[in-house]
Amino acid sequence: FPEEIIDTVDIDEDRILGVHLFKDKSTLIIYYQETEQAGSANIEYFILYKGERLGPYDRITDLCISYEQNTAACSVTINGKDYLLSGTDITGPFDAVWVPRFAPDGTTVVCTVWINEHSYALIGKEKIGPFIYISNIRFAPDGKTPFYTVETEESDYLFIGTNKFGPFDKIFGFDFSLDGTVFVYSAVIDGKWYLFAGNEKFGPFDNGYSFEFSFDGKTPIYTAEKDGHWYLYVGMERYGYFDHWSVRWTFSPDRS
Length: 256
Description:
Layout: E1 16-21, E2 27-37, E3 40-49, E4 52-57, E5 59-66, E6 71-78, E7 81-86, E8 89-94, E9 96-102, E10 109-115, E11 118-123, E12 126-131, E13 133-134, E14 138-139, E15 146-151, E16 156-160, E17 163-168, E18 170-176, E19 183-189, E20 192-197, E21 200-205, E22 207-208, E23 212-213, E24 220-226, E25 229-234, E26 237-242
Antiparallel strand pairs: 1-2, 2-3, 3-4, 5-6, 6-7, 7-8, 9-10, 10-11, 11-12, 13-15, 14-15, 15-16, 16-17, 18-19, 19-20, 20-21, 22-24, 23-24, 24-25, 25-26
């Protein structure tokens, strides 16, 4: 491929830690500088973002890139506190910033932040919480609707965008169907196990096992215990009973 000069910078090559080229041919360069402080060497980190120098920072971690929007985000540390840096916008301070990343559409940054031993979901500019714990924030098939579970001192809750579901004793597996039309999750309410698929609620059961989807991409398959026996469920159809939950299923080659 022919070489092309994109940009020139006055930085010692040995101090450059990373270079990223966006689709619009602008650049992001991470580098460090050493300074003397109280008679000892001090290392400061900088980001050269589209020609603008950002920093200094004590640390730069979890860099994520949105090539669709020609921007980036990361966690930076200043004087012992963490901040979320998105483009040139900085948000904080926080006690910790966990794994910032872009939504699939490349426009919204999400992460978990900690303040005074409580966690918050940071979705764009919106901070949701406080909670004891937040699960990994994932996105619906539309590429922009986040969904995640949270734990409070009393109960668990499920968030899909701005919609809140619960309270539950505990939430287990949760995901969208393969065709992206049905949200399925399992939860315990008053000691009983339920499976939720869209507007349908299956249960109560004494116990349950994680679900999968059939070949149509939206019918849940799961095993559940009722009155001391285990059953296999395919949507509304029940098979069994069985003495143990360790039931394994598969479809015939013609998927019938």
